[in-house]
Amino acid sequence: MAEQFVTLHCTPCASCVYEAWQHVVEGRLRWEQSEHCPAYQVQACGGGWGPPPPWVREHVVAREGTTRLAVGGPDGIPLKAVRELYGLSLPELRHARTHGLDATPVEARLLRAMRGEGPRG
Ligand SMILES: [Zn+2]
Questions:
Q1: What is Dmax (Cα atoms) for the chain?
Q2: If you measure from the C-alpha of residue 108 to the centroid of ligand 1, how many angstroms do you get, rounded to a whole number?
Q3: What is the pTM of this model?
Q4: Which helix (H) or strand (E) element contains residue 24?
């Protein structure tokens, strides 16, 4: 039986493909990542609930951009929804309320849905 060696390489090479994305599963925010390298036959994937880790979010933002959302007030996303989704501290929440919030398209869609509106685009 031939043995197959899998060479792990830590530094991404020119063939490495990394993908990260977000989606909503049963009303909850989820992120996924997948990494594969055709040159070295390496494949890894993972994911989790809630807001993604910063390096994953960076990829999502690079590809999809962000939308500035108003937080609080009559037209804004309710503070409670923002706090629940991102787990913000009170100072962070105040900052979001003053300056708005940069949400990815998937996060924006979920937050708008939490406001009690359907997705409006
Ligand atoms: Zn590679």
A1: 68
A2: 33
A3: 0.79
A4: strand 17-25
Q: What is the pLDDT of residues 88-120, one digit of tens each?
A: 999 999 999 999 999 999 999 999 998 875 444
Residues 83 and 117 sit within 8 Å (Cβ to Cβ): no
CA 84/CA 101 separation, integer angstroms: 14
Partnered with residue 30 across adjacent β-strands are 23, 49
Identify residues whose C-beta is under 5 A from ligand 1, the ion.
Answer: 13, 15-16, 37
Render pLDDT for 16-37 as a digit per residue (tens, 0 to 9): 888 999 999 999 999 999 988 8
- Distance between Cα 40 and ligand 1 center (Å): 6
Ligand 1 centroid–CA 5 distance in Å is 15
Q: Please say whether the beta carbons of 31 and 110 come within 8 A.
A: no
The identity of residue 42, as a single letter, is V
